[in-house]
Amino acid sequence: MLAPKLWYGQPAYALDGKIVCFFQASAKFKTRYATLGFNEAAQLDDGAMWATAFALTEATPAVKKRVATLVKQAVS
């Protein structure tokens, strides 16, 4: 089960003490998008190349569904 943590003052989730995914708010970093990122502990490997971060501009139902899918895959 994922455990909520603060990581550099931002929300993150850990599995067995290792940060798996994290969120960076656009307001804190003065960027045009928020970031959902994944660390090395995430099980997102897909061949020789895969994404480890995603830009988020709004939380639509489709975006929420995609985030849930990615997080489930990351901890599988």
From TrEMBL:
It comes from the Bacteria. This is YdhG-like domain-containing protein. It comes from Amycolatopsis azurea DSM 43854.
